[in-house]
């Protein structure tokens, strides 16, 4: 599947968009552009993992993406060590814009557990970092979907998005060595060729990772686990294509490596079905299914 369609086809398809199996990938703004603060609740699919041990000073430490009322997706490296040891103090914050000034539109949902990929490795025997960097967040309580809070669409197959632009978002550092952003920020990044990225980083040979780059624009520490989404022209909905995994110490100097969500579609469905919580993900329906 190609991300860009001929202009004439886009116009002809405007009145015949493919449906999704349930409402997903919605925005509260018609178009998305890069390098700026997001509008309040512009992206209902975004969530933050927050340490709430001190109610007066909650600390957002990673991003996540809403999949169902009881499930979200993040990076497995976000759930290790002290996070796992203090899981009773971890909540998923949804519907928020400023994580230091949370208003009534936001919801705090306690995390029950993390289901990390069983083959996640911080550094495997071949020296490849963050293999299978994906984790399902299982929630104790239900997320209440509304105009400000809702799920992303999942892809139905592997997408050919090389040289296409995708949208990343999060509350991470705004500059190398700087501080995290209190407000949600978003940026457009270009998907670069696997071969190019593999010459800079040692990637998984099964191509379960994809790389993005933007000149002087990038995800950074604190954005980990957050979504990279693509506006599917066949549905006009945001599809989750990757999770922020890792990059260079100097954010924006080199490409970033992300977990390719399409590689884990079966794993996601199995993890949800085994979670003990109800939930159905949303995705594009083909013409015959509609």
Automatic annotation (TrEMBL):
GO biological process, one term: proteolysis
Chain ranges of the Peptidase S1 domain: 31-268
Pfam families documented for this protein: Trypsin
Record flagged with keyword Transmembrane helix: no
UniProt xrefs under CDD domains: Tryp_SPc
SMART domains named in the record: Tryp_SPc
Protein name listed in UniProt: Peptidase S1 domain-containing protein
């Amino acid at each position: 599947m190609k991300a860009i369609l001929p202009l004439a086809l886009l116009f002809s398809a405007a009145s015949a968009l493919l449906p999704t199996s349930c409402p997903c990938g919605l925005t509260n703004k018609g178009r998305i552009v890069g390098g700026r603060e997001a509008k309040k609740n512009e992206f209902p699919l975004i969530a933050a993992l927050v340490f709430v041990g001190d109610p007066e000073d909650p600390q957002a430490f990673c991003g996540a993406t809403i999949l169902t009322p009881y499930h979200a997706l993040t990076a497995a490296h976000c759930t290790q060590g002290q996070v796992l040891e203090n899981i009773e103090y971890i909540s998923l914050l949804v519907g928020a814009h400023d994580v230091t000034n949370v208003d009534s539109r936001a919801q705090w949902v306690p995390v029950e557990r993390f289901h990390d990929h069983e083959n996640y490795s911080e550094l495997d025997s071949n020296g490849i970092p963050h293999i299978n960097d994906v984790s399902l967040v299982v929630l104790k309580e239900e997320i209440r979907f509304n105009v400000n809070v809702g799920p992303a669409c999942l892809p139905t197959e592997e997408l050919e998005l090389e040289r296409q632009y995708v949208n990343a978002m999060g509350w991470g550092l705004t500059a190398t060595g700087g501080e995290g952003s209190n407000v949600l920020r978003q940026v457009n990044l270009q998907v670069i060729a696997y071969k190019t990225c593999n010459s800079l980083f040692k990637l998984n040979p099964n191509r379960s990772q994809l790389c993005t780059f933007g000149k002087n624009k990038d995800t950074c520490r604190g954005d980990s686990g957050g979504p990279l989404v693509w506006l599917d022209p066949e549905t006009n909905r945001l599809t989750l294509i990757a999770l922020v995994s890792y990059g260079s110490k100097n954010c924006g100097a080199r490409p970033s490596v992300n977990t390719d969500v399409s590689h884990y579609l079966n794993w996601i469905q199995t993890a949800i079905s085994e979670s003990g919580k109800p939930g159905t993900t949303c995705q594009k329906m083909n013409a015959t299914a509609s």
